[in-house]
């Protein structure tokens, strides 16, 4: 099996630290006084149930759906004494998935009840990436829902990713196994009449886009535009010039999503590793010069350069760890246009900058930042280290 010498050094460098959603999670905001957020996240997962794992689900593929609600605890960025605290799942409450209304009718009923209790008719759905446990998935869904002020029902779709940096290929395989279940979940959400916003990160972005594309080409496609806002953050999707998977998948999915926002970063070192694992094929999440123009005038696809956003050690989780990204995502999930986000409005500053004409949007903030050492190593040294068997 092909391996990279540099990847071994990377594993040693980041040993014991969190590089993705499975790691410590807390809000990016510092309210005064500091306040912890307690919220319920509806979950649908294909993981095998195992009480010895945080949240009650293992990293193993279960082959059948499980549904329920997870009680999450998300602390602020810093506590009252300046101490750092991290989120956790207090308890999970399983429920029966299948009902007379559908194979995932139990989960849909929980979402509808949560929306009704908050006097709203929408749901924010999060699909995580690789190297993520069940608890990381529901906690990240809760954190983004809070920090991006989604304000209504919150759900997490958790496929059987493993919490092991050396199991990337296995994670790709398990994400593929999850596609039929995600398709059923999204189909039943489309039939519910709720406003749906969907965020897919890394391999979760790949899974989300390929699922929507397949749904649109199925015998009975869901209603057009049932996804109000589709957000792909650091998507791990092939974007090779002569064989561009993203352009083909996006063309298939665009009828189902009114607007798609793609956050990319040229400093994303996880996607550099993915590029090498895929035989040198560039990844969408690090391709800031790519573009897609929908054929329908009522559809929009925006590529946002988030290279200067603060992030984790490997610059892959900026979508949830950067205040700049979350400020823009708050507006995106609430349907604010690209033009308005570039101009700003009463009470808030612009969250993106254009720079050129036509607009090539990038997040507002510092003009340039120095990538971390690990990122610089992976981006500049790793490419010249040969692959070995």
UniProtKB/TrEMBL annotation:
Domain of life: Bacteria
Annotated Pfam families: DUF900
Keywords from the UniProt entry: Signal
Gene3D superfamilies attached to this UniProt entry: alpha/beta hydrolase
Signal peptide: 1-17
Protein's recorded name: Esterase/lipase superfamily enzyme
């Amino acid at each position: 099996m092909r391996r990279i010498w540099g990847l071994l050094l990377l594993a040693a460098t980041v040993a014991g630290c969190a590089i993705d959603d499975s790691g410590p999670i807390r809000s990016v905001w510092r309210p005064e006084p500091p306040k912890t957020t307690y919220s319920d996240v509806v979950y649908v997962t294909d993981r095998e149930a195992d009480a010895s794992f945080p949240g009650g689900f293992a990293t193993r593929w279960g082959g059948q759906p499980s549904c329920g609600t997870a009680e999450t605890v998300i602390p602020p960025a810093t506590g009252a004494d300046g101490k750092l605290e991290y989120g956790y799942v207090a308890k999970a409450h399983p429920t029966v998935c299948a009902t007379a209304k559908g194979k995932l009718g139990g989960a849909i009923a929980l979402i509808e009840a949560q929306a009704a209790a908050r006097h709203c008719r929408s749901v924010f759905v999060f699909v995580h990436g690789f190297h993520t446990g069940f608890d990381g998935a529901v906690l990240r869904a809760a954190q983004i829902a809070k920090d991006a002020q989604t304000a209504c029902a919150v759900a997490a779709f958790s496929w059987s990713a493993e919490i092991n940096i050396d199991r990337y290929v296995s994670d790709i395989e398990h994400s593929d196994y999850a596609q039929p279940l995600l398709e059923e979940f999204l189909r039943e959400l489309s039939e519910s009449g709720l406003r749906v916003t969907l965020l897919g990160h890394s391999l979760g972005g790949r899974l989300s886009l390929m699922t929507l594309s397949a749904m649109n080409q199925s015998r009975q496609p869901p209603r057009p535009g049932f996804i109000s806002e589709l957000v792909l953050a650091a998507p791990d999707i092939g974007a090779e010039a002569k064989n561009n998977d993203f352009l083909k998948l996006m063309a298939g999915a665009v009828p189902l999503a009114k607007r798609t926002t793609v956050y990319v970063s040229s400093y994303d070192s996880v996607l550099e590793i993915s590029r090498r694992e895929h035989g040198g094929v560039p990844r969408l999440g690090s391709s800031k010069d790519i573009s897609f123009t929908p054929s329908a005038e009522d559809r929009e696809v925006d590529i946002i350069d988030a290279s200067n956003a603060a992030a984790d050690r490997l610059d892959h989780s900026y979508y949830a760890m950067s205040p700049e990204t979350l400020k823009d995502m708050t507006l995106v999930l609430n349907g604010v246009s690209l033009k308005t986000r570039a101009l700003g409005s009463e009470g808030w500053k612009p969250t993106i900058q254009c720079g050129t004409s036509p607009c090539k949007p990038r997040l507002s903030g510092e003009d340039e930042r120095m990538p971390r050492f690990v990122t610089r190593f992976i981006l500049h040294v790793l490419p010249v280290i040969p692959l070995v068997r």
